[in-house]
Amino acid sequence: MHWSKYNIFSAIRDSGNYFILNPLTGSADVLSPREASLAGMLQKGESVSDADFLNEFISKGYLIDEEQEKKLYRSKYLDFSDNREKDEIQIFLVTNYSCNFACSYCYQDQYVFPGKELTREMTDAFFSYIGREFAGRKKYLTIFGGEPLLPSPRQKEIFTYIIERANLAGLELCFVTNGYELEEYVPLLRTGKIREIQVTLDGTKTVHDSRRYLKGGSGTFEKIVRGVDATLENGLPVNLRVVADKGNINDLPSLAAFAIEKGWTGSNLFKTQIGRNYELHHCQSDPELLFSRISLYETIYGLVKQFPYITEFHKPAYSVAKFLSENGSLPDPLFDSCPACKTEWAFDYTGNIYSCTATVGKEGESLGTFYPSVTKKEDIIERWQDRDVTTIPECHDCPVQLACGGGCGSVAKNRTGEIGSPDCRPVKELLELGFASYFDNDK
Ligand code: SF4
Ligand code: SF4
Q: Best substitution site from 338, 353, 362 to test ligand 1's pocket, by max atoms within 8 Å of Cβ?
């Protein structure tokens, strides 16, 4: 028996207790200081005489036979690959890269926009391609930009057509929008099968308007709020996204209070996500303003302690901790956290195909075309599809691999030039915060 190489063991933040978790065997426990000291001895390979404790650690797979562990790993990996074949595919369509906003931190601001428009002919080619290529797979469509919901009659006309085609194909639709024209678009959106409208709001009025303004500099907060109200009133689900950095994070309590006061958080059509403002390809923002992944979550953890009502607005995931607290069990082992070219693809109005939203429209990242003719760079697509913790050499012996999944392929490629390189996640540190937040540690 040996200490499983997939055990994640550490102290719970602000508590005398510890946690141990093993994504391969699916076990997780809070440990008292005494139990943690015994676990620490086992981790160092020392012997422990407490038979009950040893038996429990063996039954939960924290102590495991090496061969049995390898077998279990292989079998879970096969399950993961099989399930992925059946998973739903998210297909992004970029209708335009142009935008009516000039956000202070836009990662697309250096993209050169080809002076083309999405035509009916290209839309037909797009629907034929996805119908053929992903035949028999569950799938849904996410419309993305630039800003898709622009006010021009031409834009409304092409969306009417896209919604018609999506309805014919039985596809649900999501829209990722800055929300400025949402109120005007709601009647048109209601004609589709809308799964979700993702809208970005970076804070209450003053903070939001200092970051997400129109090209002319005017504020956008009030119109977006009217758009969110109209969307919810019409029964369409909203996913409110906050792009967080040091410039707006301290406004989170006020934004949460605003959303609670508006009654948004009481609606089952409303959910939130906090995205980290980070340097994807390059960054316009002051680098001093950017959080690392762990420092963002540490800051949110501190804010929630001070203003517990924030969790009515947003409950941080802290790796798998929130899932564990809500489901009473761990998620399946995560051999790959990057869906690019597997369960995610992106297409744009120039006729190009990309791996995902991080690469769409970026020079040199095209993987082929769906219009005017179909072409594919099979070798690069294969590299994306092969990427997981079993093929990234750095991940092989990493104890948190089955909760991390190797991170984002695009971030990894931007850093090292290699798709098959790691983008490390601070899993242990996130779990330290997560166990402190969601489990009654001191009892
Ligand atoms: S490359 Fe990054 S952004 Fe793209 S699918 Fe993978 S994890 Fe997501
Ligand atoms: S990306 Fe880094 S943290 Fe994640 S599994 Fe690989 S080595 Fe571990």
A: 338
- pLDDT tens, residue order, the chain (443 aa): 999 999 999 999 999 999 999 999 999 999 999 999 999 999 999 999 999 999 999 999 999 999 999 999 999 999 999 999 999 999 999 999 988 888 888 766 666 666 678 999 999 999 999 999 999 999 999 999 889 999 999 999 999 999 999 999 999 999 999 999 999 999 999 999 999 999 999 999 999 999 999 998 999 999 999 999 999 999 999 999 999 999 999 999 999 999 999 999 999 999 999 999 876 655 555 778 899 999 999 999 999 999 999 999 999 999 999 999 999 999 999 999 999 999 999 999 999 999 999 999 999 999 999 999 999 999 999 999 999 999 999 999 999 999 999 999 999 999 999 999 999 999 999 999 999 999 965 54
- SS3 at position 238: strand
DSSP letters, 124-190, are HHHHHHHHHHTTTS-EEEEEESS-S----HHHHHHHHHHHHHHHHHT--EEEEE-STTHHHHHHHHT
For tokens 């409303």, name the residue: 270
- In the reported structure, the alpha carbon of residue 429 is separated from the centroid of ligand 2 by a whole-number distance in angstroms of 13
Distance (Å, rounded) from C-alpha 89 to C-alpha 225?
31
Specify the residue with its C-alpha closest to ligand 1, atom 2.
Answer: 408
Q: Which atom of ligand 1 is found nearest the CA of 409? A: 1
**Helix H or strand E segment including 382:** helix 378-386
pTM of the model: 0.94
With the most atoms of ligand 2 within 8 angstroms of its CB, the residue from 336, 423, 425, 428 to mutate is 425
Domains present along the chain, CATH in parentheses:
2-77 (no CATH), 87-316 (3.20.20.70)
Residue in the block written with tokens 């890269």: 97
Ligand 1 neighbours (beta carbon < 6 A): 338-340, 344, 356-358, 408-410
* Among protein residues, the one whose CA lies closest to atom 6 of ligand 1: 338
Residue 197 CB partners (closer than 8 Å, separation 6+): 174, 175, 177, 182, 189, 231, 236, 237, 238, 239
